[in-house]
Amino acid sequence: MHRRHLVSSGLLLAAGLTLGSVASAQTTVNIAALADFAGPYANVMNDMQGGRLAVVEWWNKEVGEKMGVRIAVKTYDTRYDVAQTASLWPGIKAELKPALVLGLGGPDAAALQQRLPEDKVPMLFGTAAYGFGWKPGQWALNVRPTYSHEAAGFLEWFRTTKLEGKRAVKVAIITSEATPAYADMAKGLQAYAKANPDKATFVEAIWTEVQPADLTLQVRRLANAGTDVIVIQTNTAQAVATKRALQALGKNIPIVLSLHNGVLGSSKALGNPNGFAGDFEVGAIADASEDDTPARKFYAMLQTKYGLKSNWNSMTMLGLGQAIVAVRSVEAAAKAKGAAGVTGEAVHAVLLGTAFSGAELMGILPGVDFNPENPFPTGTAKVNVATMKDGKVVRVAADAPVPAIPKW
């Protein structure tokens, strides 16, 4: 696509005497998109990727065309692997000279976090942030606060609504040491519980494989300890293994998931469209519930006018959220520097210096404001909590507050 576009642009420029300023103003801005079509997220990647590409198509037609700017996206399969991301990056940088990278998750952050400042290319994640990225001067930025912030927002809502605030929530987490991002989820949750003993009691972290075969023994231990909530913000494989263990034990402990392994995707992986009924998903981003929200209207428009085929689910939402911040940052950089001045450095400056409103982000996110100290939104973060009922995602809490957590 990119090469064809360059050829067509060249023809237009050659015919500039007849086509005038329209042709000469056309500028292509390259974005690299990192994806996983062969690893742990292969079963849900198409939805996220579809969301990304539809937002870019929409922006190119309805915004970029008027500005003489076109965003071109090239996707690279990293298999959600640190080594693969690191090995691909020099070629991506040389081939595309990208103004921005759409990252997928923890392995991308681990592989590129130290390189991006030197390469002057910012990377945006649709996922929540990580404690190891909570450092000043970052070029890897998350459009949501950390996973632990989101889990803490859920726990405070759960304690208030389900336990009537009478005691601390007994919480456990299932995760893995296979990636720094997964390990970080446990560290942050422990930091929250330690700082708020009246609100949360940390039962145990179960360390297992990325795609575990059986967790019955570990889950029995959590049940025997009186665990109220099991947090799994890693992937669908761990969610499914935990659900099967609970079923085998005849236990009904609610699981709280993140959006990339939400109730719909995890139910599909389980082989039961209502398999995670009564469990929860939480994120500081619009939920994929049936409610008539601005986010749902934007999605419907992309379906109708821009060929979006992704399902209405949390994985698609990640793609939409990541891409809407990306295109708005390119848009702001083009307005500030001119179309030819949309470099990685210019986009990074925009991201750190601009507060994007929820309306600008089409209701997908409540607003995004970075600063040099925090590589994730620093305003008053809010989370949405949804559950599954009759095979559908149903919102149970909107804009629940997110507590502060000591830096870990």
From TrEMBL:
Residues 28-359 form the Leucine-binding protein domain. InterPro entries: BCAA_transport, Leu-bd, Peripla_BP_I. Keywords: Signal. The keyword Signal applies. Residues 1-25 form the signal peptide. The keyword Signal applies. Pfam families: Peripla_BP_6. Belongs to the leucine-binding protein family. This is ABC transporter substrate-binding protein.
